[in-house]
Amino acid sequence: MSNSDIIAILIAFACYLVLMIIIGGIYMKKTKNTEDYFLGGRGLSGWVAALSAQASDMSGWLLMGLPGTVYALGTGQAWIAIGLFLGTVFNWVVISGRLRRYTIRANNSLTLPEYFQNRFHDKKKILLLVSSIVITIFFLVYTASALAAGGKLFNSVFGINYNVALAIGAFVILAYTFMGGFMAVCVTDFIQGLLMLVGLMVVPILAYFLVGGDNIGGILEQSGVIGGSASYLSLFENGGEPIKFIDIISQLAWGLGYCGMPHILVRFMAVRSEKELKKSRVIAIIWVAISLGMAIFIGVIGRAYLFPTILGSEGAASTESVFITMITTVFTTDFALPFIGGVFLCGILAAIMSTADSQLLVTASAVSKDIYKGVIKPDAKEEKVLFVSRITVGVVAILAFLIAWDPNSSIMALVSDAWAGLGSAFGPLVLLSLFWKRTNFHGALAGIISGGVTVLIWDYLPIINGQTIATATGIYSLLVGFAVSILLIVIVSLCTEAPSAEMLQEFEDVKNKNVE
């Protein structure tokens, strides 16, 4: 790129980043208490709830991790996207409405840990503490993945040192999350969700026509895809070999994670009414279907459009930069519109920021609202809790920054580990707490601990010939952790005392929609 191209892209980035900080400043003035800071006073509209939930869900993984793995191995990697789509539909259709009602019935719970405490009448606040610790651990890794994606974006586009780029992205995300809280995060995520969608649709379609649709198969062959173009484009082959059944199941299992993602579930809790929630449901499902489909398309078209450049080869950028490289090539080489290219690059930054800000906010709520006010100092005033929240946002951002410091860190690997941990620890409990009235405190505690610990053992302990169980078996830890957690919740709940009459009545009220 020429210097003028870089300047035009920088101007686009600067305008975008300044807008995000201004939104944070606006909502800082409107944030008066913790319900405003963490749930926006339960006042989200259908559009904002839908797009902010999905934007915060997909992260840089959607525009970097998924296209990158498809670019490298072929459409056999699309099973993850299929699993995520099914998980999204299930989350919005089955969980969203009942969770919103139950959090209101359960003493107006503002966070997921607080919901667990109130749902199971945990007067000792054990569930509150344990679930808050789980959130803090896994969201550190998740936030690090978003910051790493931001560092790679700035490094690829501007040639800025990765660590300097990491610091720039972390600062902006920290600024508007620190100031504005939940509504600032949701409004910025709404804008970011629209920007992501436009970028996902426009760029690959332009590249498709530029490369010539009829030529794609031949160019893929020339690019050296493993197994040839037919294998590369087959849903049932992966890296040139028939995809294994266990690989399909493991990739589909990504969809289970939705049941336990606090930064997504909190959007359901914050929607202003059941009517708005129904609207959100349709918008979110359409958004995610288009976005996942186009992300896969980017991986395939990018392989043909960027040839003879082969990403991931010696001296070339990593495969995770395929969308970035496509944007800069399309808009600086073919169309000479670098500012427009800069706007679409902001779509990638939007994906990164929309997830990192939500994760920072949920972690802040876990530490300040659930641990500090819930356990350490129950009589703390609202102003003090807000202060602790903002300090927590800063501390978590710094720790995530340090985790992401290594420029070779894989976005896909970081997201995979955090997604599995949160999905296994909370997903089964969210499901059973909403739909099985026999679930009790002991079962809930067993489910959270067993799910989280299973993932840590499966992914991190090298106990099979120096390999982790995940590496040795190829089975995604979320699948195992989810199964272990749900099994223990049922067994432990049945082996201990039944829920109280009051808890059963609350369950029936939610089931029958007797909630104001």
Describe this structure in words.
By secondary structure, the chain is mostly helical. It has a single domain (3-409), classed as Sodium/glucose cotransporter (Up-down Bundle), CATH 1.20.1730.10. Helices cover 77% and strands 1% of the residues. The protein has 20 helices and two strands. Strands 1-2 form a two-stranded antiparallel sheet. A hairpin with a 2-residue loop joins strand 1 and strand 2. It is globular, with a radius of gyration of 22 Å. 58% of the residues are buried. The mean pLDDT is 85.
Structural descriptors:
516 residues, mainly alpha, Sodium/glucose cotransporter, two-stranded antiparallel sheet, globular
Quote the average pLDDT: 85
Query: Approximately how much beta-strand content do the residues carry?
Result: under 5%
Structural class: mainly alpha
By CATH, the topology is: Sodium/glucose cotransporter
Task: Let me know the largest β-sheet.
Answer: 2 strands, antiparallel
Oligomer: single chain
Side by side, the strands of the main sheet go: 1-2
Rounded to an integer in angstroms, the radius of gyration calculated over CA atoms is: 22 Å
Q: How many DSSP-defined strands?
A: 2
Q: Please state the overall shape, judged from the principal axes of the Cα atoms.
A: globular
Number of helical stretches of at least 4 residues: 20
In CATH terms, the superfamily is Sodium/glucose cotransporter
Contiguous uncertain segments of 5+ residues: none
Indicate how many domains the architecture comprises. 1
SSE arrangement, N to C: HHHHHHHHHEEHHHHHHHHHHH
